[in-house]
Amino acid sequence: MKNVRPDFPILDQRVHGKPLIYLDSAATSQKPKTVIEALSHYYSTMNANIHRGIYYLSEEATIAFEKTRRKVSEFIGAKEDRSIIFTHNATEAINLVAHAWGRKNIKEGDEILLTHMEHHSNLVPWQLLAQEKGAVLKYIPITKEGFLDIERFNNLLTDRTKLLAVTHMSNVLGTINPLSHLITKAHAVGAKVLVDGAQAVAHLKVNVSELDCDFYAFSAHKMLGPTGVGVLYGKPEILESLPPFLGGGEMILEVHEEYSTWKPIPYKFEAGTPNIGAVIAFAKALDYLEHIGMDVIREHEKALTQHALYQLKEIDHLTIYGPMDANLKGGVISFNLEDIHPHDLGTLLDHEGIAIRAGHHCAQVLMKKLNVPATARVSFYLYNTPQEVDIFIDILKKARRYFNRGL
Amino acid sequence: MAFEGLDELYREVILDHFKSPRHHGKLLSHDVEQEGFNPLCGDQIIVQLKIDEGKVTNIGWWGKGCSISQASSSILTEEILGKTLQEVEHKIQFFKSMMQPQGEVSKNEEEGDLEALSGVRKFPVRIKCALLGWTTLEEAINLWKKIHNS
Asked: What is the distance between the alpha carbons of residues A176 and A256, in angstroms, rounded to a whole number?
């Protein structure tokens, strides 16, 4: 892959006197110049509210906004642009489904099937719904190696299952889940499937039509785009059948004193002024990813992950959580170093300019299953290099020695 | 050498308390027990106090967390054992102000192992870790007072 680092201005800086090594892209990715410039360009030349003005700027902004919808639709292989709803993040996209689809379709005694590796954003909305409706949450466990226990899944799936909500790629373990199998099986019992794609869509080629999932949620900021933009893909016939999520401007056709009527999808679900500038700049992120190529990015990350796993395995007193084969996981590695709490490790690495994540990663259920309070996590993206991995490994080896000094 | 300048945070006194925590574990009998939790990082601590005639006569604690939260909790036990509730409350307020980035620290108070924690001030993201044991202790005392005043 070509050297993309000059495209990411933030990477060219020193932290605590050391060159910044950013290994937390699973939390949020850095942004290429084209995205940063697009934001500035929007506010400098185009800023106006969309879908309402009958003047030049508003028309321009509306066209650019809708062009992004077109691009997102193509990027994830949706058949129709009206399947793409803009939200403010993946969490809101999932909450939209929990409210609009869930309240209409989930009844007392119904079962919602989750997994032990879900991020809180694909867990708490379903808890709230289940508590409200008297529905039952079931969890697909994970194996020792960090994969979903497919045998247990087959048993947990019954005709009471109304929804399977599952992550495409674990934000802690990196595990890539076998979606085609899960979706086919879930559909066979009449359940709908929501996929949390926040991690996966930034790193893998995703085609929602081939997957045949009913909903797919993700965030722009994890895939080189600005913060404040989420996407919900939904099958149009399902979206059409649903009541609105949020009420307000932009989503209505007619408002009377006692009732209102709604715009067609996707606008029915886009109440209020959206994050227009960020949505428009998001198109540049998609252009960038396509220009490099998702397959090229995947190969680059696989190589980095394998390179890191190979060296991590050799470090004494280090435990890795999740699959050990880069072919079966994304560029995310969670680990713990004996005697050092992940937060201390985070501080030690930060002092050497290396940004990693330490904590429960919004996956407390998974932490309990792994029987750890927290883990350290590194995650890679297209701008990371094998040299950065080597420096990280070197500092990691020194960390334990430093912490045990004088004892 | 890596980690230059970090010794101010990870002083040997702190690492020593982290590795050999004082008064660690459950008490055989206690008058009040309080759990503290830092939702940001998942750190957790449970504090038990034995209180006789207005004095902390025994203290036990356990939990999960980073070196700073564990060492701070361990140091705390040595600071308050045998002290009156009023003295303990004073100590808690003192420690809280000590953790303010601009906090004034009177020299005579800042003696002993407690002083070792003053380096945390320069690492704002870790201040919450250092405070966990102390805020939990404060809640424990408030709980005890509530029970005994009603």
From this structure: 48
Residue A119 backbone phi and psi in degrees, to 5: -70, 150
Q: Residue A1 pLDDT more than 80?
A: yes
Q: A35-290 adopts what CATH topology? A: Aspartate Aminotransferase; domain 2 (3.40.640)
Rounded CA-CA distance B46/B64 in Å is: 9
Which residues of A are known to be catalytic? 362
Query: Rounded distance, CA B46 to CA B33, Å?
Result: 7
ipTM rounded to 2 decimals: 0.88
The torsion angles phi and psi of A234, rounded to 5 degrees, stand at -140, 150
* Phi, psi angle pair for A265, to nearest 5°: -65, 150
What tokens appear for A365 in the block? 């259920």
Pick from B84, B85, B67: nearest CA to B75: B67
* Total CB pairs under 8 A between chain A and B: 64
A351, A359, A402 ranked by CB distance to B41: nearest: A359
Rounded to whole angstroms, the Cα distance separating B121 from A341 reads: 19
**A265-295 confidence digits (pLDDT tens):** 999 999 999 999 999 999 999 999 999 999 9
Of A343, A351, A407, Cβ closest to residue B6: A351
Ramachandran angles phi, psi of A174, nearest 5°: 80, -10
**A186-225 pLDDT, tens digit each:** 999 999 999 999 999 999 999 999 999 999 999 999 999 9
Nearest to A29 by CA among A203, A169, A174, A173: A203
* pLDDT value at A39 more than 90: yes
Question: How far is residue A208's CA from residue A206's CA, in Å, rounded to a whole number?
Answer: 6
What separation, in Å, do the N-terminal and C-terminal C-alpha atoms of chain B show? 59
Pairing of strands A230-234, A215-219: antiparallel
Chain A residue numbers with beta carbons less than 8 Å from the beta carbon of B63 are none
Domains located in chain B, CATH noted: 6-149 (3.90.1010.10)
Give me the CATH topology for the region A5-23+294-403.
Aspartate Aminotransferase, domain 1 (3.90.1150)
For residue A387, what are its two tokens?
Answer: 């040299």
